[in-house]
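Look over this entry.
=====
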Amino acid sequence: MTEAIRIVLVDTSHPGNIGASARAMKNMGMSSLVLVRPQSYPGAEATARASAAADLLAQARVEQSIDSAIAGCGLVLATSARRRSANWRVLDARSAATEILAASASRPVAVVFGGERNGLANEELARCHALIQIPANPRYESLNLAQAVQIVCYEIMMAQRGATDAAQPGLEAASVESMKALYRHLDSVLGAGGFVHPGDAVQLRLRIERLLARAVPDEKEVRILRGLLSAIGRCGQGPKR
C-alpha cells in the first residue's frame, strides 16, 4: 500500500534535495510526494538530481500548508533530529515503518520532513501523532534530507516485504479532519468553562493536542470524546428551568 503513504517535504530550501528525495523514494517503491512551500521548485536542478525519478516530480503536489498536505490522512508521523521537551512518542525508523505500513491499509499515512535549516515548527509538529528519529553517531547526527527520506522509505519497503497475510489489522487512526474538529470542540468547552487563562491558551492547547495524538484515537473514540465534551458543555449551562 505504498501509494497510500505520502512523503511530505516542508519548506525545502534546496531544489537538489527535492530531486534527490524523489530518487530515493523511487528506489524504494514509493510514489506519493507532497511539497509544502518549496523555496525553489520546479527547476532544472531538482530534475537533474531526480535522475530517472522525474515522473515523481511531475506528479508531486505542491501545497501552501501542512494541513492541506495531510488532508484525509489518519496516522501522521514527523521526522526530527532534535530532542523535544514535550512528551512525544518517539519511534526509530524501523518500528515506525511497521506502524506506517499497518495504518496505510485503512487510511492514507503521511511522513513529514522539515526544512534543511530549522526542521518543523511546533505548530506543524502538533499535527503529528509521533516523532521518527534516526539513530546516528552522537558526535555527528546531521543527516541530509534525502538521506533521511531514503532510510525511512527503505524501512517501509522492508516492512512491506516482511508482511504476511496473517498480519494483524492495521491501526485505524481517526482522520486529520476529525481530530481538528475535536480540538475545536475542546477549545470551545474549555473557553466556556473558564479553564483556560488567555496567557496560557496556546501552550496548553499544544500540550493537550500532543496528549491526544500520542493516543492515536480512532473515529469511534473521537466521537466518544466529543460526546463527553458535549455533556460537559451542557452541565456548564446549569439546570434547565
Residues 145-162 form the longest helix (18 residues). The chain has two domains: 2-162, 176-236.
